């Protein structure tokens, strides 16, 4: 089944732009990873919030990505630039990835 992931971050004071730039780079990398259907960075500077949305073909594809990502230097830098630990949530999608919102 398809998997959706939401990651929320609050940058340290004065680090919003630096973290946003890093997240944009990481999102571009994840889009190239096998099994990634969608990856988007979302910025809310007025709330000092950065979020990432990812959609994966399968839970296994997402798990393989996590193993790969855990070995990359960028992840450590994300933690350094974040005020607290990023909030991470994953969900099993109840509709096939190709379905439109009107297909419910």
How is this structure best described in words?
It is a single chain. 36% of the residues lie in helices and 29% in strands. The protein is built from three helices and four strands. The chain has a four-stranded antiparallel β-sheet with strand order 2-3-1-4. The model has no long low-confidence stretch (mean pLDDT 91).
What is this structure's SSE topology?
Elements: E1 3-9, H1 16-31, E2 36-44, E3 49-56, H2 59-70, H3 73-81, E4 87-92
Helix pairs in contact: 1-3
Features:
104 residues; alpha+beta; 4-stranded antiparallel beta sheet; 36% helix; globular
Overall pLDDT: 91
Count of DSSP E strands?
4
Q: What does the main sheet amount to?
A: 4 strands, antiparallel
Structural class: alpha+beta
